[in-house]
Design goal:
The structure holds two protein chains of two kinds. By secondary structure, chain A is an all-alpha fold. Chain A is built from 13 helices and no strands. Chain B is about 35% helix and about 25% strand. Classes of the chains: A mainly alpha, B alpha/beta. At the A-B interface, helix 8, helix 9 and helix 12 of A face helix 2 and helix 3 of B. Bound molecules: adenosine-5'-diphosphate (ADP) and magnesium ion (MG).
Chain lengths: ~280, ~240
């Protein structure tokens, strides 16, 4: 035990470990806040779809040899988020089909672009780290961390200020509209915020595992808690605890950060599921 | 001047008209029942009255001073609501959203109003309970309490008793009647059940192949009223 502790002490001398921990916790926290709304609006797949869009956008940025790909990626992802949330309510193209289409499309185009234009010798390594975020979290710079902190503060502020409106629009969109709440505006706000969170999260877990950060905390919390507020709070705590554990374990065991966090999410989900069953049985 | 006036309304989707040239007035204190078969466009009409969709032709005129966000609405139940984690308190309070405007949080008065409406609907003690775990009748009363938080003068109810057993249905009708008689709230209700409509409403709007609008007495004397009042119900 003391051995492990002293090993931690050693690791925490390095700033990159701190950076990884801060960024990891913030991203997990933001994703879980929005996750509750997305799961309830039947938009949980949007995380998956948008992360693939972000992957495609990164490919485009790397083909264009942009040094700072963040603005372009953010722009493209936001546009797609708006588009997807819109078609979600359109009767002609089913929302889930649209997500699947855009998601697979961007993945393919992104891979194609990287394949055709990439100068790097280690193509599969590049793609692997974009998809699974395996190494990038270790290479975070101080300015990355500050960007992440400020965007997270913005996301949390938006969520708190519009909490009641988000609840109203999520629970019953047409009723909210009849009380004068501009549902479309808040749907747009949710879309933009989720796009920001996803672009942020690309660095941590890579595009394939973002859905997990969005879905697991919300679904786990919904097993046990029954009000919107308690589900939201529980999801946030769940996300933070799992990501801290995941990052610490991945440091000690040398496993990839993203997959470790998700593995812990799965275990924790199973625990919550069991607790939920037990609670229902008793009630 | 009527509280709400529909003039030559035509409603439909994707360029196809479902309702043609419909005109009627609703005065303050009226209890209007809209009856008609499934698919005859009752929900569509109600959504138009609420301003959720716009008519293809014609217009809906509301009395001066009745703002869009002063109408209470009890929607036909949707699927999303059924597994939503929300407490009774959260749902009812969300009816005050229109009073908030841009203010992010509810104030004391709004919380008091929510509490009052919870009591009025006989839901005291259930505030912390999960909405989806309540019985059908309780759920409808929660939605009615929410609608009351939004309503100042008028309530629009879309099939408020569908799926409820006869005893709970009678309770629900009694609650609505009480709101109309004692508090003077204007009611527009969609219903499948003609016998109930004839019993409680002051006016009837019959939609479908044969259209009718008038007072209850006029309806009972009309050809369409006589043929339906005997049967009592539409087949689904
Ligand atoms: N969003 C929509 N898009 C296209 N058609 C619709 C839509 N909603 C309803 N309809 C059609 O309009 C008709 C009337 O529907 P509705 O107003 O729900 O009837 P009711 O409430 O009387 O059962 C139905 O034929 C239905 O299929
Ligand atoms: Mg209907």
């Amino acid at each position: 035990m003391t051995e492990i502790l002293s090993e931690f002490a050693l690791y925490f001398n390095y700033p990159f470990v701190w950076y990884a921990l801060i960024v990891g916790v913030l991203i997990a926290f933001c994703s879980s806040l929005l996750g509750v709304t997305l799961v309830l609006k039947r938009f949980s797949f949007i995380g998956d779809g948008l992360s693939h869009v972000a992957f495609g956008a990164i490919a485009i940025a790397s083909v264009l040899k942009l040094t700072n790909n963040m603005p372009l990626v953010l722009l493209i992802t936001t546009l797609c988020a708006v588009l997807l949330l819109r078609t979600g309510r359109n009767a002609r193209i089913k929302g889930d089909a649209a997500v699947a289409m855009i998601s697979v499309g961007s993945l393919a185009v992104g891979y194609l672009l990287m394949n055709v234009f990439s100068a790097s010798g280690n193509l599969s390594g590049d793609i692997c780290s974009t998809l699974f975020g395996s190494t990038s979290i270790i290479t975070l710079t101080q300015s990355d961390v500050w960007l992440c902190i400020s965007l997270s503060v913005a996301v949390v502020a938006v969520f708190i200020i519009f909490y009641n409106k988000i609840f109203a629009v999520t629970f019953d969109e047409s009723f909210a509209q009849t009380t004068g709440t501009r549902a479309n505006l808040y749907n747009l706000l949710i879309a933009v915020t989720i796009a920001v969170v996803i672009v942020l999260a690309m660095n941590l877990v890579g595009s394939l595992l973002i859905s997990a950060l969005v879905i697991f905390p919300a679904l786990s919390a919904m097993r046990v808690f029954k009000s919107f507020k308690s589900v939201t709070l529980c999801a946030a705590v769940f996300a933070v605890v799992c990501s801290v554990l995941g990052i610490l374990i991945s440091i000690i065991a040398g496993t990839p950060v993203g997959s470790t966090i998700v593995a812990i999410d799965i275990v924790a989900f199973a625990a919550f599921w069991a607790v939920g069953l037990f609670k229902d049985r008793k009630a | 001047m009527p509280l709400l006036s529909c003039q030559n309304l035509s409603l439909g989707y994707d360029g196809i008209e479902i309702i043609k040239n419909l005109s009627f007035d609703v005065n303050s204190g009226d209890y209007l029942c809209i009856v008609g078969e499934n698919g005859s466009g009752k929900t569509t009409l109600m959504k138009t009255l609420l301003g959720l969709q716009s008519p293809m032709h014609g217009k809906v005129i509301v009395e001066n001073g009745l703002k869009q966000n002063e109408i209470g609405y009890l929607p036909q139940q949707t699927v999303v609501q059924r597994d939503f984690p929300a407490s009774v308190w959260e749902v009812v309070l969300s009816g005050c959203q229109g009073r908030c405007g841009l203010r992010p949080f509810y104030n004391k008065e709004e919380k008091k109003l929510a509490k009052k409406n919870i009591e009025k609907m006989g839901l005291s003690g259930l505030e912390k309970r999960c909405y989806r775990e309540l019985s059908g009748g309780q759920q409808q009363r929660v939605l009615l309490a929410r609608a009351l938080c939004a309503a100042k003068k008028i309530l629009l109810l879309d099939e408020p008793v569908s799926g409820l057993d006869p005893r709970v249905t009678a309770e629900m009708y009694a609650l609505i009647e009480n709101l109309n008689r004692k508090e003077g709230i204007t009611i527009i209700m969609i219903s499948h059940d003609i016998s109930a409509a004839v019993r409680y409403a002051s006016h009837i709007l019959h939609m479908g192949d044969t259209e009718f609008f008038g007072t209850k007495a006029e309806y009972l004397n009309s050809a369409v009223g006589r043929s339906f009042a005997k049967g009592g119900r539409f087949n689904d």
